[in-house]
Design goal:
Number of helices: 7
Distance between the termini: 9 Å
Order of helices and strands: EHEHHEHEHHEEH
CATH class: Alpha Beta
Shape: globular
Protein name: Flavodoxin-like protein
Keywords: Oxidoreductase
Radius of gyration: 16 Å
CATH architecture: 3-Layer(aba) Sandwich
Largest sheet: 6 strands, parallel
Helix content: 25-40%
CATH superfamily: Flavodoxin domain
CATH topology: Rossmann fold
Number of strands: 6
Strand content: 15-25%
GO molecular function: electron transfer activity; FMN binding; NAD(P)H dehydrogenase (quinone) activity
Organism: Kingella denitrificans ATCC 33394
Structural class: alpha/beta
Length: about 180
């Protein structure tokens, strides 16, 4: 069973992340979704509750939109509050050891912007290095990020974004099925 940490600060208005979550919910997979922006609108994350959720699952998917080349603030707050010394790292901090860490990211801009010669100057995988290090530091098994471009409603039509999200989420579902079989 997979845990999805949904970290979209305005999920009710999301097109791409909502489509991804809907596809996951309709996939037949046994998943738990925790919408941390809704659970903790004041950013006061219940670390004990979130740690218990992490312990119930072998795979953790971090679902969020790329904001200014990074994760939304609520996800950073989650990492700061939940992945604590003695739980996720440090002396006795091996509770997440061997669990799968799967970033799942929607990227508003087109792919051409995320090249060395593009507007962003970096590839999405390069922007994910802090996530990769977080996984390593917590002894989790980092899985290359699932992501796709072209999700900004300012640049693309709703139907196109939903179609793109549904097509790409099939790959995420296949990954989760394969990880579930390995467990």
């Amino acid at each position: 069973m997979a845990l999805v940490i949904l970290a979209h600060p305005d999920f009710q208005h999301s097109v791409a992340n909502r489509a991804v979550v809907n596809c996951l919910q309709n996939s037949g997979l046994n998943i738990e979704i925790r919408d941390i922006a809704t659970l903790y609108p004041d950013y006061r994350i219940d670390a004990a509750a979130e740690q218990q959720a992490l312990l119930r699952h072998e795979t953790v998917v971090f679902q969020y939109p790329l904001y200014w080349y990074n994760m939304p603030a609520i996800l950073k707050q989650y990492f700061d509050n939940v992945l604590t010394y003695g739980f996720a790292y440090g002396t006795g901090g091996d509770r997440l050891k061997g669990k799968n860490f799967v970033p799942s990211i929607t990227v508003g801009a087109p792919e051409r912007d995320y090249r060395a010669d593009g507007e962003a100057h970096f590839r999405v995988l390069e922007l994910c290095k802090p996530l990769e290090q977080t996984a390593y530091y917590t002894q989790m098994r980092y899985i290359d990020p699932f992501y796709f471009h072209g999700t900004s409603p300012a640049l693309y039509g709703r139907e196109e974004i939903v179609r793109r999200a549904e097509e790409n989420t099939e790959r995420l579902v296949a990954l989760l099925l394969s990880l579930d079989k390995q467990a």
